[in-house]
């Protein structure tokens, strides 16, 4: 699946008023379209996030996830330079049956 196709699927889900049914129906399609690097960064953001730029596994894969609408730039503890996963990312990971990642010590989780 190309980057444009992934964005089209996510855009379609958002156009359906972001219902849980839409997320669950299309999450696995998006998961299957992600590269292994994008999946790994998504897992990092979900289980260790928000993640500071210096600790991100791959900045280019992070940028792709932001472009797809699966991640956002955020502030954390009064500092800029962090990225976090959003609700759609959670559904994509869950429906894609992605494996969890060890929660990093000191994470806000």
Give an account of the 3D structure.
The protein has 109 residues and is an alpha+beta fold. It has a single domain, classed as Arc Repressor Mutant, subunit A, CATH 1.10.10. It contains five helices and three strands, in the order H-H-H-E-H-E-E-H. A three-stranded antiparallel beta sheet has the order 1-3-2. Strand 2 and strand 3 form a beta hairpin. It is globular and about 35 Å long. It starts with a helix and ends in a 14-residue tail after the last helix. The model has no long low-confidence stretch (mean pLDDT 83).
How large, in whole angstroms, is the Cα Rg? 13 Å
The tally of helices reads: 5
The backbone outline, from C-alpha atoms, is: globular
Taken in chain order, the helices and strands follow as HHHEHEEH
Record field, number of beta strands: 3
CATH architecture verdict: Orthogonal Bundle
Average pLDDT rating: 83
Instruction: List low-confidence stretches.
Output: none
Main β sheet profile? 3 strands, antiparallel
Report the helical percentage.
Answer: 40-55%
How is the CATH topology named? Arc Repressor Mutant, subunit A
Major sheet: order of its strands? 1-3-2
- The CATH class is Mainly Alpha
Structural class: alpha+beta
Strand-residue fraction? 5-15%
Task: Quickly count the domains.
Answer: 1
Question: What separation lies between the terminal Cα atoms?
Answer: 32 Å
């Amino acid at each position: 699946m190309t980057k444009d196709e992934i964005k089209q699927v996510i855009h379609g889900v958002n156009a359906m008023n972001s219902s849980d049914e839409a997320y669950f129906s299309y999450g696995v399609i998006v998961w299957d379209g992600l590269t292994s690097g994008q999946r790994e960064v998504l897992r990092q953001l979900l289980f260790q996030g928000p993640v500071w730029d210096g600790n991100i596994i791959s900045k280019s894969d992070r940028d792709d996830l932001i472009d797809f609408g699966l991640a956002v730039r955020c502030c954390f503890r009064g500092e800029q330079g962090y990225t976090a996963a959003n609700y759609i990312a959670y559904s994509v990971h869950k429906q894609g049956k992605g494996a969890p990642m060890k929660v990093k010590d000191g994470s806000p989780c």
